Amino acid sequence: MANLAQWEVMQLSLSDDITLKFNQLVFIIFRQLLSYVGAPSYRKAVALHKPPHPHA
Predict the structure, then answer these.
(1) How many domains in the chain?
(2) Could you report the per-residue pLDDT of 23-48, keeping only the tens digit for each?
(3) Which of 6, 38, 44, 48 would give a disulfide with 34, using CB separation of 3.0 to 4.6 Å?
(4) Is residue 10 a part of any domain in this protein?
């Protein structure tokens, strides 16, 4: 069990840095995908679901 505890401590010390980099990478990839593929259809969906302007 001591080895497992040491391993978990090592993983914890690494996890913050790795998680931060991984989250940044996922965010960048997601943003690229959204800008290439999703942006036009996303804008269309927003326009379709936008409630009519009250002062129109």
Answers:
(1) 1
(2) 889 998 888 887 777 667 767 777 77
(3) 38
(4) no
